[in-house]
Amino acid sequence: MRFSALRQLECPKCGLVHDPDQVIGLCDCGSPLLARYDLDEVRAGLTKAEVASRAPDLWRYHELLPVRDPANVISLGEGMTPLLALPAYGRELGVPNLLMKDEGLIPTGTFKARGAAVGVSRAYEVGVRKIAMPTNGNAGSAWATFAARAGMEALIAMPIAAPEICRREVTIVGAELKLIDGLIGDAGAWIREQLATRDGYLDVSTLKEPYRIEGKKTMGLEIAEQLGWKMPDVILYPTGGGVGLIGIWKALAELAALGWVDGPMPRLVAVQATGCAPIVTAWEKGLPESEPWADAKTVAFGITVPKALGDFLVLQAIAETDGCAIAVDDEEILAAQRRCAEVEGAFVCPEGAANFAAVRQLRASGWIKADDQVVALNTGTGLKYPETVPL
Q1: Can you say whether residue 229 is alpha, beta or left, with left for phi > 0 and alpha for psi between -120 and 50 degrees?
Q2: Residue 36: phi, psi to the nearest 5?
Q3: What would the DSSP string read from start to end of 293-360?
Q4: How far out from the chain centre does Cα 211 lie?
Q5: pLDDT averaged over consecutive 10-residue blocks of the chain (391 residues)?
Q6: Any alpha helices (H) in the chain, and if so which ranges?
Q7: Cβ(172)–Cβ(273) under 8 Å?
Q8: How far is 117 from 129, CA to CA, in rounded Å?
Q9: Is 223 helix (H, G, I), strand (E, B) or coil?
Q10: Backbone dihedral angles phi then psi of residue 253, each to the nearest 5 degrees
Q11: Is residue 41 exposed (0-12), middle (13-18) or buried (19+ Cβ within 10 Å)?
C-alpha cells in the first residue's frame, strides 16, 4: 500500500477531473473540488485491524488522506477525540443513547485543527509556503498554528467581533492578523484585495482548496471506528461553512464503499442559529442552494456564515441521508451550554450547544426517536468563549 491512495480531484458540479499534484483551488466552474481515492487498492491492502493497531491520531487513516509522503505530515497529535456518553443529559432530553464527539480536546481547542493539519500538510507537499484566509476565529487560529509548525507564513483576516482568544492565538504564533469591521464575507473581500497585490499566497478559505474537508472527514471515520464500525442513527453538526458535515458524509460513503460499514447512513442534521440560518431556509424551501442571509448575528459566532460556498453539498448530504436542517435561537443555545455543564461537567462551545438545543426540539417533534443512537458534535472547548458565561 502507498501511504496515500489519492487518485484525483473531482468537481461535484461539472464532473471535471483535475490532477491533484499541483497547487489548485476551485474547479474552472467555480465549484469546490473533492479528493477521490483508489478504494480498490485500500480494500485490498488495508484492514480494520491494522488501522486499530496504529497511533491514536487522525493520521491512522493516512491511506484515505491526501498526503503522499509521511515526511510532509505536519502534526500536533490531532485526532481520536473522545466519543462520550451523556447519560444524564440524554435522559433529560429523552434520548438515552446520546453521545458527544468532543473536539474541545484537540490542538487549538477546536475541530478546525483537523482541517488545518491536513490542509497545511498537503499545501506544503505541493510547494506552498504562504497561506491566506478569512475566518470567524477558530479556523484562522488553527491554520496559523499549523503554518507556524510547518515554517510557513500566514495572513489571517477576521471580524473584530471574533473571540479574543482566537485573535491572540493568531498573534502568538507570528501570523499577520487583520481585524475587519464586518462579517466573514468582508474579511474574505479584504483577503482577495491583498492577494491581488501580494505574490505566493494560496487562498485557503473554506472549500477554496480541496484538503480541509479531508481533515474534517476524519471525524466521521473516528465515529465509525469508535462505534465498532457501526453507524449511529443520527449525527448533528453545527453548520456555518458546513465542511465538517460534508466531510462526515464523504467519510461514511467511503467506508461503505470499502465494505467496512453497512446499513443505512446516519441521518445528518445541519444545525444553525435563527440569527443566521441560510441552509435551513433553503432546506425548507426545497432549494438546491442557499440565499445570502442579511444581518447575520448569533452568539454561536463560528456558524455566522451568511452564504456558504459548499451549501449545495450540505443540502445534498442532508437529502441523501434523509436528514434535516434546523435553527435554534441564542437563548436555547446558552441554556443548553449551561445545562450540559451542570449535568455532565462538559463545558461545550456555543456551536456545540446548538446541537443539544436541536436534539431537544427534534425529540419533542418525534423526528428523533427515543431509541435512536444520536451523536452530537461539540466542535470546540467552551473555554474559548468565556463571554458566554455570566459571573
Answers
A1: left
A2: -120, 145
A3: PTT---S-GGG--SS-TTHHHHHHHHHHTT-EEEEE-HHHHHHHHHHHHHHH---B-HHHHHHHHHHH
A4: 12
A5: 97 97 97 98 98 98 98 98 98 98 97 98 98 96 98 97 95 98 95 96 96 98 98 98 97 98 95 98 98 95 94 98 98 98 98 98 98 98 94 87
A6: 39-45, 48-52, 87-93, 112-125, 138-150, 164-172, 184-195, 212-216, 218-226, 243-258, 278-285, 311-320, 330-344, 350-365
A7: no
A8: 15
A9: helix
A10: -65, -40
A11: middle
CATH class for the region spanning 129-199: alpha beta
Fill in the amino acid letter for 216: K
- Tell me the three cell numbers of residue 277: 440560518
313: nearest Cα among 232, 253, 259, 377:
253
Which amino acid appears at position 376 of this protein? A
Q: Which three cell numbers stand for residue 92?
A: 433529560
Question: Nearest CA to 152 among 216, 90, 100, 202?
Answer: 202
| Domain boundaries of the chain, sorted by first residue | 6-72, 129-199
All three cell numbers of 257, joined, read 464503499
- Tell me which residue of 136, 374, 90 sits closest to 239, measured CA to CA: 136
Strand order of the β-sheet with 153-159 is 176-180, 153-159, 130-134, 201-203
The number of angstroms, rounded, from the C-alpha of 276 to the middle of its chain's C-alpha atoms is 18
